[in-house]
Amino acid sequence: MIKKILIAIGALAMPALAPAYAQGAPATAELNVQNIVERASAAAYYQGKDGRANVHMSILDSQGRERTRDFTILRTDIGDVDNGEQRFYVLFNRPADISKTAFLVWKRADANDDRWLYLPALDLVKRIAPSDERTSFVGSHFFYEDVSGRSPNEDNHAIEEVTDAYYVVKSTPKDPKSVEFASYKNWIHKASFIPVKTEYYDASGEVYRTYTASVVETIDGRPTVVESIMADTRIGGETRMSYGDVAYDLNLPDDIFSERYLRTPPRRYLR
Amino acid sequence: MACRRVLIGVVAATLAMAAFAHAQEPPLPTGLAPEPQSKQDHKGKDEPALPAGLGQPTEPALPSGLGPTSTATPDRRAGNDTNGFVMPFGLTGFVESRIGARIVEDPTQKTLSIAEVRAQFERDFETDLATFRFVGDFLYDGVKDDLGVDLETGRGFFDLREANVVVRPVDFLDIKAGRQILTWGVGDLYFINDLFAKDFRSFFIGRDDEYLKAPSDAIRISTFNNFANVEFVYVPRFDADRSITGERISYFNPALGRIAGRDAIIDADTPDAWFSDDEFAGRAYRNIGAFEAAIYGYAGYWKTPEGQTPAGRPFHPRLAVFGASLRGPLQGGLVTAEFGHYLSRDDLGGDNPLIRNSETRFLVGYEREVGEELTASVQYIAEVTSDYDALTGALPTGAPSPDRVRQVVTFRLTKMMLNQNLTLSGFNFWSPNERDGYFRFRAAYKLSDAWLAESGGNIFYGARKNTFFGQFEDNTNLFVGLRRSF
User: Fold this and answer.
1) Residue B458 Cα distances to B424, B466, B482, angstroms
2) What is the pLDDT of residue B25?
3) Which of B86, B166, B263, B303 is the S-S candidate for B241 at Cβ 3.0 to 4.6 Å?
4) What pLDDT is recorded for position A130?
């Protein structure tokens, strides 16, 4: 009996699905492009309800000189809502001159992020004025926005191509004056929704900035980019960012992301 | 450069080729359906290779999920040290050398304003119950004649910056006890409710900004709850500011009626009895939306010797302060506001000209990004004498009356360049009523992750010799420094 019902449901569903296949992806894709981009954003920035990683950055300038940054990052998604508000706590370990400097970000949905920096030598909790999200994060080729995520609502998205492995999405900014790119193209892995490659184009349509996810690992059942590269021909050089000791769903208390823990690092969650 | 142009050319050519190829394709539906072999070929160039862990692009269809393929990857654990040199025993810190000179003749001081080699060592110890922290500076000071150590004033070859323990006996309580640096309030290089010890000597001669803060021997008790976090700081023995005494920085001496320096070093009577000459400070703070609000209180002494005994010896009169602050976003920038009422407890009537009057201090500030990695901020500061009429009425006949309100406007510009390796900053204090000011500028360049080169200046200017900044005119100096962090 149950089997018959299932077959009936299947038969009813088939005609509904068939046209989508027959006509190919564009119709479906166009319908769902916003959804694809939102899922990609969730896969890249909102895995689990919270998370932790030890990050190593290797910054190579145009002459191949290396600078490094090492920090631990804690993240929580407020209310465990994808593409919603988040809080980040970053504790720098190296280089030595910024060791024990802590950085706190409250990422807001519709307003500028709130950001604080704690300078231990001065015991100073310094609030940082809102700044262009598309400026370098700690001197690397990654922008603040590359680390914390760009809202899917800030661009218009269109499916350019659907391949075996990817949704290729072209995005153009709703407010072109607020960004340095004319458009960008994102190769989103169909199965995992991980953005594997992003190319940023200038007004003449040339690529000047390229993001590549070079290594993905499945951690706690969640596909996770554990190494990525950002190259920028305007600046020259590239930054390779590696994530180690990634963990999800640590049940980080919300109050970790407060002035108290800027002054006194939450060591048990940083290990 | 040529290489870069070639790269851009290659990328552009590749894109043009790809676009041409796409244009020639029949408008077949893309998607999961199989595609012509020719398209597969050029697509291989256009499309990124799947990273390790996401399968292989040549597979006709990827399994749902990520499939069984999981490439073993090397350990990319953060913290690989590329710094070369690491201190033993888990010590971190820096060694630096700084040298600077007056660019104005000062008959009361040496020409060298700073000439020192400093090594700072830092070590944290963590146990399950407590975190211990030690920071100490060894200093060879080529300007000072006397190298005897005094940990209270920071004199000598060793300056203990921190030696403290942090414990959390219950979840809502943090206790930090011992020698520590303490800071609160929202002013930028101007402090109203932060009455913890400062070191203006270091600030004026071009030491790193961290030395503006002198350590306090204190216990700090912080409690946390959802309504408001409340902190108390108890300093069992009064910590005076490391203020201008004439020893390294010349100043206007009203008794002598001229600029004085090493010929007239101020020897203030400083309260120093444990547990009776003590200080209390408190703060309650909470967030209100995106704003941070706080109220403050203090009971202790003026941090600089603002009183004079009838015999003429400077001393620290008693002081109580209460105030409040607010900080939050406004119009794409950050607004700050703070006030504090200073109650001069040894001159409550305000009619003793030998003791500083009570006053109300406030500031409003605004900071925002004005260009690419360029931040500007401005502050308006006022110090309003409380009992001005009583004060002027009590002055000896013929003595000049001070201004009722001292006003200061500060302006800061900070620019980062060269991948944030070069930081240029300028900070100017200017008092419209005293017609004097102080301009600090710095250029700091990170030669590498370990090495920092810095240069800067401290320019004092004023129309008169007896105003707050004007008196320091002869201390105008330039300096250079080199630091190796480890």
Assistant:
1) 14, 18, 18
2) 32
3) B303
4) 87
Distance in angstroms (rounded) separating the CA atoms of residues B116 and B479: 11
> Which of left, alpha, beta for B108 (phi over 0: left; psi -120 to 50: alpha)?
alpha
At a CB cut-off of 8 Å and minimum separation 6, what does B171 contact? Answer: none
Q: A95 and chain B: CB distance < 8 Å anywhere?
A: yes
Beta-strand (E) ranges in B103-209? 112-126, 130-141, 158-167, 173-180
How high is the pLDDT of residue B368?
A: 95
Establish whether the linkage from the previous residue to A95 is cis, with ω within 30° of 0.
Answer: yes
Least confident range from A10-19, A131-140, B177-186, B307-316: namely A10-19
Tell me the average pLDDT across A8-19.
44
Mean of the per-residue pLDDT values of chain A: 87
Nearest CA in chain A to B44: A163
The answer to whether residue B224 is domain-embedded is: yes
Q: Do A94 and B60 touch (CB under 8 A)?
A: no
Decide if pLDDT at A150 tops 60: yes
Residue B45 maps to a domain? no
To the nearest whole Å, the CA of A5 is away from the closest chain B CA by 26
Number of H helices, E strands in chain B: 4, 22
State the total domains in chain B.
Answer: 1
Considering the four listed CATH numbers 2.60.40.10, 2.50.20.10, 3.40.470.10, 2.120.10.30, the one that applies to the domain covering A25-270 is 2.50.20.10
List, for chain B, all residue ranges whose pLDDT scores fall below the cut of 50.
Answer: 1-44, 56-82
The string of pLDDT tens digits covering residues A212-238 is 999 999 999 999 999 999 999 999 999
Cβ distance A264 to B166 less than 8 Å, yes or no, reads: yes
Query: Nearest by CB to B79, which of A54, A131, A217?
Result: A54
CATH number for B359: 2.40.160
B15 has a chain A CB within 8 A of its CB = yes
Q: pLDDT at position A15, please?
A: 41
Alpha-carbon distance B299 to B319, whole Å?
6
User: Any residues with CB less than 8 A from the CB of A268 and at least 6 apart, and which?
Assistant: none
Q: How confident is the model at residue A271 (pLDDT cuts 50, 70, 90)?
A: confident
Question: What pLDDT is attached to residue B55?
Answer: 60
- Compute the average pLDDT of residues A158-162: 92
Q: Which chain B positions have a beta carbon within 8 Å of A25's beta carbon? A: 29-32
Q: Does A101 touch chain B (CB under 8 A)?
A: no
Residue of A nearest to B50 (CA): A196
pLDDT at B13: 40
Q: Do residues A264 and B123 lie in contact, with contact meaning Cβ atoms separated by under 8 Å?
A: no
Which tokens belong to B451? 């090495």
**Is the per-residue pLDDT at A135 higher than 60?**
yes
Query: Judged by CB atoms within 8 Å, which residues 21-40 of B form the interface with A?
Result: 28-33
For B289, the domain range is: 112-485
Inter-chain CB proximity B229 and A259 less than 8 Å: yes
Q: How many angstroms separate the CA of residue A228 from the nearest CA in chain B?
A: 10
Interchain contact, B369 vs A129, CB within 8 Å: yes
B292 and A97 within 8 Å at the Cβ level: the answer is no
**Chain B residue with the nearest C-alpha to that of A128:** B334
A226 close to B (CB below 8 A): yes
DSSP B211-223: GGBPPEEEEEEEE
Judge whether B170 lies within some domain.
yes
B173 → chain A, closest CA residue? A260
Is this prediction's ipTM beyond 0.95?
no
**Residues whose CB falls within 8 Å of the CB of residue B432, separated by 6 or more in sequence, listed in order:** B407, B409
* Residue B48 within any structural domain of the chain: no
